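Feature request, filed as a ticket because there's no other form

It would be nice if the structure record came with a short human-readable summary line next to the tokens. Right now we just get the raw output. Example of a typical job, pasted below so the devs can see what we mean:
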Amino acid sequence: MRQNKLKRLGVGIVVSAALAAPVASWAHAVAGMRVFPATMSFDDPGVANEFSTNYSQTKADGVTTKNLGLAYSKTITKRFGLSVASDYNWISQPGTPNQSGWDNITVGAAYQLFVNGPHEAIGMLALSDTLANSGSGGMDSNYSTVSPEFAFGKGMGDLPWSMRYLRPLAVSGAISMDMPSDATQPRMLNVGVSLQYSIPYLQSFVKYAGLKAPFNNMVPIVEYTMSRCAGNYSVCQNSGNLDATGSVNPGVIWVGKYYQLGIEAQIPATRASGNHVGILVGIDVYLDDVLPHSLGAPIFG
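Raw output as currently delivered:
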């Protein structure tokens, strides 16, 4: 689930970016001339007002899992925000009745730790709690899980001009730890990393390549996620979570003024992650821009 984003449309270079690239400049987490689109498989590093929904479908060893994730984030101040999220799951496998229902509700808080415009760097600290017994009976869990997280982004816009065609590149990432309240459940370390190449950045700040809509707003991206046992390995072994799981997700994100659209393939990164390629699609609505004077504005400041 993705949540917790603060958009900082400031002054100076950002204003220049707005003039040069009117579409991208309204979108999401910003550090200098860099716009970081919302990654689809882990949190991006910005705190913002937004509504997001993702749909994924994966298959592993005959078990098909469909997931619809919903999340809403709201800034309290310019640097601090709260969020609420949940997932609806459908699980089917041959020979057993299909299952469906809501997962536990997750509430979270996030703080924009830093934004460095000249170096296109941004960082966020977050803390979330997945509340016990808050979903559908049989699909939720009877224990809570607290997850501290650090998310970051770094654009390559400060590379020398001789390497200008690498300037549209950026990396982002998030690292978190899931700590269940039930001692029989495993602690899991989660890592997400993305490599992205911004066509809007290329055409606005490096060289206009003549690409028109819809390609001029596209950001080709590869996301990588991994979860592995952290700590008590006997607990992980008993719960079946000893093997690392994750995926490599190549795709593209289209960034607009009010929303973004994304689609990615989900390629299992390990045997324990499955044996079929899944799909992930998502929509993020930037309430900062849709409703800048009401839901899209911080409550204070």
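Something like this underneath would help us a lot:
The chain is about 10% helix and 50% strand.
The mean pLDDT is 88.
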